[in-house]
What does this fold into?
Amino acid sequence: MDWRTLLYEKIGAVVRITANRPHVRNAQSRVMIHELDRAFQMATDDVDARVVIVAGAGAHFSAGHDLGSAEELADQQAHPTGPGIAENLERLSSLYLETCLRWRDVPKPTIAQVQGYCIMGGMMLASCCDLIVAAEDALFADRAVRWGGAHVQYFSMPWDFGPRKAKEYLFTGDYLDAREAERLGLVNRVVKRDELASATLELAQRIALQDPFALKLAKASVNETMDIQGHRRSIEAAFKNYMLTIPHRQGPTAMRPAPRASRRASRRATGASETPPTRLPRPDRRASPPASASASARQRASQELTGQSACVLAVAQQDLAVDHRRGHASRALHEPPSPCGQVVDDLGHLGSDGVGVEYDEVRGHPFSDQPPIGEAPERSRHQRQHPHRLLEREGLLRPHPMRE
It folds into this structure.
């Protein structure tokens, strides 16, 4: 099989799959992810293959998902995605979540051979593997919170090295070096950089000496134990939180469904009459109080309605102020926008050739630079009541027939 982004090698009973895009730090394009999926399936179907190694060519294992290389941009134009949240949910789930869950459950032992950057999508790929052998220069990170996101699509960090450390590295976005990753349990072994390939292959060949059926069941028992504890469900739930951060970063116009044609245009297309349908009159709930009502009752009801309207407006202004302050704070964490024609990579700087890798999906910010609006006054019990109820209570408005 011809591979565009991978190298597929068979070394005895060991299969080695190598991400082969070193010019973009092995950024994972859509094509690479699909090829990885096929490579894992080929290794699974190969009865002579007992262990799978996943590696990265060049100085880095993988610096994330490719969001800006020329090949990826051309592929996005060739395979467009609809603007709605339903289309994006289906695409992101199938491309990132479901693939990682399949790779985790490959019925053969898998080993990640990690050097250099292993961040964001790269960390997802390594976390799917059963074992991780890291070089001394390996760096792990999930920096999504720095850009207004929650985490990556396949969020296994709490399971890899515990909830408290997961929160620390999420909240700060700091890098986790190889020695600390080994101490926390994310990495199995740390070796010298020039010994990484040989040490990983030696470990894989030792494992390949075992009975393949026994290896399959041993792996299944560990994975099923974690699933009984909630691993898979927590991964799927975390993906929903990830999806919520996309419109948060993109602003109020993010992932809106495509605009529907107007009713008039629809009638013209179907040849229907443009005469608007007859509508039944609706009862006026805001009718004036009866003439028999006292002047004091009229004035009291008017004051209560005025206070309620002012309070509703103040609450809306308070919500806007909170959104503004949140946006102002998160905007300070955003990296500066990239120069025209270049892409900022997942590390916050430009690549040597102007090609970048995973970064915030959206540049810019929806929040304005208006000053925060004041706090809303406390509402009384009467102000929280519906205005119709106030008028009905004072005898100034008849109860609606549906409520009698």
User: Anything to note?
Assistant: Residues 305-385 have pLDDT under 50 and may be disordered.
